[in-house]
């Protein structure tokens, strides 16, 4: 009886242990689905890391990918770090390469990727009479549409849509030509001078108009001209206006420079003249202050006067004065004046015996 109880107890314990192990296995499942030889669940390498050693006898060994050089995008037990894609030829990089994402390359601007040919092709240019409905992108070509409902396109383009036609003012303008899908309407105000390019279906132009005929016979404006569609304004503004303004600007600049140079020269000349006059005045003042003793005096201008030359001039002046002066009479000298009658001159002292 005791043996039977012991066997029942042992069987119950084994059943409990198996149930507990099964419950733990259900609660903690293995996401990778692979185990090591020891029964351990293998771990995946996350994005940005590559497998260096696969899971087997030991756990998986991962390594970090190098940014801009290698990458790994998914959780994996076998994927290693792969080299980044390089954009070459007609391709350009839209998104750079990181450790967890590869670089994304697209076609260059004005090119799109043709899925049939498997390469980049130039974007389509819409012809005259058609405008751009959808611009060209790297993944699709340009979509063009016909210009209708008072719209036009007078040039080939891969960017410009159909433009609305110009509406002439009924009160002040005359419509010279109607709008077509290939060209805009032409309006004219009789009160204002208008410059326009005539078309082949128009009659002789009025004598007040100035016509510009292009070499190729097209009705587009000459390069450098501006087209306006507002009422009461010229249609084409010639580029000659800018060419005429350039000489005027140059003349004004030259006049300013010449005037500035003349002003500087005048100021210098006037300053030199004043300095020279001041020097002469100082020299005259120093000459008047010279003493007879012959001392050398220095004036404000730094000019010295020689006293010896001044003494010689004074001596010469004294000598000339002595020569011109009459000699004095001597009291001992006698003068006899003979009268007509032979008598002595009155007031003459008698002769001594």
TrEMBL record:
Xref: InterPro entries: Neurotrophin_rcpt-DD, TNFR/NGFR_Cys_rich_reg, TNFR16_TM, TNFR_16, TNFRSF16_N
Membrane disposition: Single-pass membrane protein
Composition-biased stretches (Low complexity): 311-324
Subcellular location: Cell membrane
Residue ranges occupied by any TNFR-Cys domain in the UniProt entry: 29-62, 64-105, 106-144, 146-187
Domain of life of the organism encoding this protein: Eukaryota
Keywords: Apoptosis, Cell membrane, Disulfide bond, Glycoprotein, Membrane, Signal, Transmembrane, Transmembrane helix
GO biological process: apoptotic process; Rho protein signal transduction
SMART domains named among the record's database cross-references: TNFR (SM00208)
A GO molecular function held by the record: nerve growth factor binding
Segments crossing the lipid bilayer: 246-266
GO cellular component: cell surface; plasma membrane
Intervals holding TNFR-Cys repeats: 29-62, 64-105, 106-144, 146-187
Ranges of biased composition (kind: Polar residues): 301-310
Chain segments carrying region Disordered: 208-231, 279-353
Disulfide partners: 42-55, 84-97, 87-105, 123-136, 126-144, 147-162
Signal sequence, renumbered to the chain: 1-19
PANTHER family to which the protein is assigned, alphabetical: NERVE GROWTH FACTOR RECEPTOR A (TNFR SUPERFAMILY, MEMBER 16), TUMOR NECROSIS FACTOR RECEPTOR
Protein name: TNFR-Cys domain-containing protein
Organism listed in the record: Zoarces viviparus
């Amino acid at each position: 009886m005791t043996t039977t109880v012991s066997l029942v107890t042992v069987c119950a314990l084994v059943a409990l242990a198996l149930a507990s192990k099964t419950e733990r296995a259900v609660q903690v499942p293995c996401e990778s689905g692979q185990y090591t030889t020891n029964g351990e669940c293998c771990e995946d390498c996350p994005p940005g890391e590559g497998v260096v050693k696969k899971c087997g006898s030991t756990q998986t060994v991962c390594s970090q990918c190098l940014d801009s050089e290698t990458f790994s995008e998914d959780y994996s037990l076998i994927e290693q770090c792969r080299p980044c894609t390089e954009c070459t030829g007609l391709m350009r990089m839209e998104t750079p390469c990181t450790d967890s994402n590869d670089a994304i390359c697209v076609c260059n601007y004005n090119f799109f990727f043709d899925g049939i040919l498997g390469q980049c092709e130039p974007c389509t240019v819409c012809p005259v009479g058609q405008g751009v409905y959808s611009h060209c992108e790297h993944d699709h070509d340009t979509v063009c549409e016909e210009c209708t409902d008072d719209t036009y396109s007078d040039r080939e383009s891969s960017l410009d849509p159909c433009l609305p036609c110009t509406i002439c003012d009924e009160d002040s303008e005359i419509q010279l030509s109607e709008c077509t899908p290939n060209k805009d309407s032409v309006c004219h105000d009789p009160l204002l001078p208008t410059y326009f390019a005539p078309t082949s279906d128009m009659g002789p132009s009025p004598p007040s108009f100035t016509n510009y005929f292009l070499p190729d016979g097209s009705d587009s404006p000459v390069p450098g001209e501006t087209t306006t569609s507002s009422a009461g304004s010229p249609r084409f503004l010639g580029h000659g206006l800018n060419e005429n303004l350039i000489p005027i600007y140059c003349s004004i600049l030259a006049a300013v420079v010449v005037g500035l140079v003349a002003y500087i020269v005048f100021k210098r000349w006037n300053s030199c003249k004043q300095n020279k006059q001041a020097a002469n005045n100082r020299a005259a003042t120093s000459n008047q202050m010279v003493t007879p003793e012959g001392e050398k005096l220095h004036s404000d201008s730094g000019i010295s006067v020689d006293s010896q030359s001044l003494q010689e001039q004074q001596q010469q002046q004294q000598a000339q004065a002595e020569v011109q002066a009459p000699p004095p009479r001597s009291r001992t000298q006698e003068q006899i004046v003979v009268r007509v009658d032979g008598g002595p001159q009155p007031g003459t002292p008698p002769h001594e015996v």
